[in-house]
Amino acid sequence: MCLALHCIANVGSREMAEAFAGEIPRILVAGDTMDSVKQSAALCLLRLYKASPDLVLMGEWTSRVVHLLNDQHMGVVTAAISLITCLSSKNPDEFKTCVSLAVSRLSRIVSSASTDLQDYTYYFVPAPWLSCKLLRLLQCYPPPEDGAVKGRLVECLETILNKAQEPPKSKKVQHSNAKNAILFEAISLIIHYDSEPNLLVRACNQLGQFLQHRETNLRYLALESMCTLASSEFSHEAVKTHIETVINALKTERDVSVRQRAADLLYAMCDRSNAKQIVAEMLSYLETADYSIREEMVLKVAILAEKYAVDYSWYVDTILNLIRIAGDYVSEEVWYRVIQIVINRDDVQGYAAKTVFEALQAPACHENMVKVGGYILGEFGNLIAGDPRSSPLVQFNLLHSKFHLCSVPTRALLLSAYIKFINLFPETKATIQEVLRSDSQIRNSDVELQQRAVEYLKLSSIASTDVLATVLEEMPPFPERESSILAKLKKKKGPGAVSVELEDGKERGELNGAGERGADAAIAASNVSTPSPSADLLGLRSAAPISGSTPSAGSLLVDVFSEAGPTASSASVNDDGFLSSAPPSAASEDPAPPLPESEELLNKFVCKNNGVLFENQLLQIGIKSEYRQNLGRMYLFYGNKTSVQFTKPVEPLVEGGAQVQQVINIECLTDFVDAPLLNIKFRYGGALQNISLKLPVTINKFFQPTEMAAADFFQRWKQLSQPQQEAQKIFKATHGMDTEVLKAKLLGLGTALLENVDPNPENYVCAGVIQTKAQQVGCLLRLEPNAQAQMYRLTLRSSKDTVSQRVCDLLAEQF
Q: What keywords is this UniProt entry annotated with (predicted)?
């Protein structure tokens, strides 16, 4: 029988699960089954459950499987607990009775002498594998509500911590490994509960002893666990006492992974009392840091400097030092942020101008420093112009000495700084006009530089002083918003790029507006080539403000293969890559009504951005898209599935078996309900094919996730309590109620999934802000599943009633 169970487990196919999933639980809990067979049955069932969880339903066997934790045979308990842990992680409510049994079993092991368990003692440590598994099982649940069970568990954890302080009973490495494995699992459980201040502080002190242990792995694990402890209000102060040890580890550790954990711990333990010390140490370490962790270190220093800056001159010094030490690893978000803060704070502008002027005098100056210097001196150079050492001409000559060493975007920024100088310092006008008039600028091979030079030269020549002052006035303060550096640190990678497997092709786009209120998302088709893997898909790095040439609100129609494409007089691409709208009369034939399945196809893309939108025997349409704030970019791929050419009177032709690509730029002007229509027309075998689909652009695509603490969430929830601000639906589940799938769909919606906010751990709460050009709409979401009744209650609250209702309708279709 054991061999048969081993065979079923090793094959582990869905067919095996269908055939034996009902029989194996019976063997597992039967009273006359031998212990060795029970072990094999538990492990076989675990293998089948991992392969096909929908087929392995415990049902009536649940309580009997849980009671295997009381089995006399330790091997059976060890195998059973692996199965119960896996089942509990998916269905915690069904198996919550295992908590008291697990505590009881753990208590018997921890309090026993090593001789009591004979065959299960490993180098003087009683049943280490079973102890670790029991502690891991308990981490699937909150602290026990029963006072007696909780007291017994706390006693177990105290005993484990006490035993860690005892002298070792053996010098063998196996003894210390087994002992430490139990200790670290116990500390993980203490951190998970985060409710026993005494245990948390003791755990912190125990980990502190490991920080100087000769074993590299123990130092690594101690640093990693202390990072989590640092976030607890009970143990944060205890963690801070080890700051000198951690700083020493950052400087002296030979293993780069341990140094990285030390940097993580410094970041986690930082607060107002030690921010300057920690930032200084991290900056010092950055000069010799391993290249693989420099970018992350830069982001952490930038975040800490901003978060704990009481004196903003210290913040400016820190960021400029950061650029000097690790300029190559300073992302755009970092230097954008320092400029935003300097512009928003009058008290630091003069100091920033003086400091950046001094930094630019270094012989070797990083390009990011030149960018910051060009921007700040262009705005606030007048604040230091009274000093002869930083007179207007000296400032200009200093900036211009860096010009020829910089890339095109930085040169463009410097040209903008020069025209600002003409406004700030009229005495520099002749010198700067001479630079702008030189052949290297006015005849530059780069179109952007040439255009700026020509326009700035003309502006400085013909505009009066008043006009010039109006056009080139100081930048207004930026709106206060969450730092984008923090979001970058969470991702720890750049914006995702669309990987295109299909052939490039040229498409003509056309926009038709209908009078009825519909999708106010501005959809524009443009002939954009496939981006490189590092391309900025949304063009946000260099995009100027969107001009007024975007289409008016309406049910916008993208006519993909229109036989009458837009002419130069009816449509043109503006600087932002958006195509201005063509007149409605441009369409040669009326579009077909949307296909009956359009709404169903649209719902498939509410929580995802990539996939096949439509497919029939002739044509396949694939989509890849990305959204950021109120902008989006969508790639449409048209595949001819036939061997015959799709013919048209004008280009493009789609050869048999070929694929072409179209890029659509999207801007959300205000909230909307109806999705835009996509109309495709082509001739196949002489017959006109006319297909209309709903383009999968829904209001939730413009969500920006928002992290919130529990108190903030419920305070905002109460503020949005008016009836028109709430939309609610109670509906039957149409798919399985799998926890991971639910989380994935809620994250796919675009909101932030907030952990440990709702008092009921079964519920899900989310928060996000819908970004439109007209306004920002904050949204809060609460999803309450009832697994027993297979029902959901979904509640949406937002500052705009139409948004609440639309998001509620969209999301209800996903479950």
A: Coated pit, Endocytosis, Membrane, Protein transport, Transport
